Amino acid sequence: METFREDDELFKEDQETKGNKTSKIWKFLNSKDMQISRNRWRIGTLFIITTVLCVLLIIYYRTSSSKKIAKTQEDACVSSPFLNGGTCITAGCSYYCRCPESYSGYQCEGHSILASTDLPGNTHAQIATIVHNAPEDNLLIGSCSRIDIAAVYQSSPIILTSMTSFSTEKTPCSLDPCLHNGTCTVVKSSFKCACVDGYNGSKCEETPCSLDPCVHNGTCTVLGNSFNCACVDGYNGTKCEVQTSCPLGWTMHEHNCYYFSSRENNWNDAKRACKRQNSMLAEATSLSKIRFLKTNAKQYLKEKDTAFWLGGSDLAYEGVWVWTTSGRKVSFTDWHTRTIHEPNNWNGKEHCLELNNFLDYEWNDDNCLKRNKYICEKQYV
User: Fold this and answer.
1) Candidate CATH numbers 3.40.190.10, 3.10.100.10, 3.40.640.10, 3.40.50.620; the one for domain 251-379
2) Angle 52-55-57 from CA coordinates, rounded to 5°
3) Looking at residue 119, what DSSP letter applies?
4) Is residue 208 within 8 Å of 227, Cβ to Cβ?
5) SS3 22
6) Hey, is 305 helix, strand or coil?
7) Where is the EGF-like domain (predicted)?
8) Which of 56, 109, 190, 261 has its CA 20 to 30 A from that of 242?
């Protein structure tokens, strides 16, 4: 209630005498002041009435909403919507079905192998929704607001792949049981795998190498829908089934045969001598071959012997060493550099490659007209 002071200039002081009593009173200065005072009282009264009405409306709507939600929860399971012994459990404005073992589906209507979810009790479960008087795209349930699926079970959230279908159903093919690009097909409560060519087994687990097709200690490698066998020395063929051998007087190494001559020839004659035996001057194209040739040269060279010719030369371009029969560039080398830095093209006439006895059986460039022993190379017979 408003109070007024004298300095408000709306009232004036006056005295009123009734009988023998005199009292002090306030009077409006004029009618305009009286109207202002009345308006103030009206505004204050209207504010109080409005506030009371708002409070009453809030209480009413909250009570009404709670009743509707409670009824929605009651209605969710009243019709017993689930089959095969499924249990209907309300969850806020939704419900979910706890299906017995080996059953799944919207109403537990089908057989399936289900992965466990994070519902309490580690049960097989599926979430369904009840939509009342609302378009599906709004995802409204009864009087509830937009669904927050993560809050359906705050203590155990469920990750759903579709807001409308809530598809958590698993099938026998859900875990991709078919290996190696096999195609899975559901067959009743089980599955069947259609395997690509070369693979077998109920889950296509058998590869082209599963049956160990490579014999004689060959190593099998899956190659697309087939296989490849890496054979040990002395065997070849698609399954290493063919036992190979080198001609008499030849030594086997990595699918090749090598001949260490006892005669001496210049480099060109040595090439021709190897060709007559359907072979070529040896080409040391790997570190393994370099070690093999060096080890065996020590056995065949006598103290007076100088070297063995190999098939390398820089006759075409000085300093560019190639294996002359295959035309491949020399990539692995074993040049002697400890006492003499080879190759050095001494006197400009050293263009052929030799394995030198006096240089630790390492490589040296020498005059192609010099007479040396030689090493021939060819594949298995």
Assistant:
1) 3.10.100.10
2) 110
3) S
4) yes
5) strand
6) coil
7) 73-109, 169-205, 206-241
8) 261
CATH of 175-206 among 3.40.50.2300, 3.30.70.2740, 1.25.40.10, 2.10.25.10: 2.10.25.10
Query: How does pLDDT run across 229-284, given as a tens digit for each residue?
Result: 998 877 888 998 887 788 899 999 988 999 999 999 999 999 999 999 999 999 99
CA-to-CA distance for 353 and 335, rounded, in angstroms? 10
Token pair listed for 273:
């001598």
Instruction: Let me know: does 355 contact 361? Beta carbons within 8 Å.
Output: yes
233 neighbors 253 (Cβ within 8 angstroms): yes
- Distance between CA 363 and CA 8 in Å, rounded? 122
Which helix (H) or strand (E) segment is 324 a member of? none
| 285, 323 Cβ separation under 8 angstroms | yes
* Cα–Cα distance for residue pair 47/16, rounded to 1 Å: 35
What is the reported pTM?
Answer: 0.43
Cα–Cα distance, 46 to 251 (Å, whole number): 118
- Equal CATH topology for 175-206 and 207-245: yes
The DSSP bridge partners found for residue 98 are 87, 125
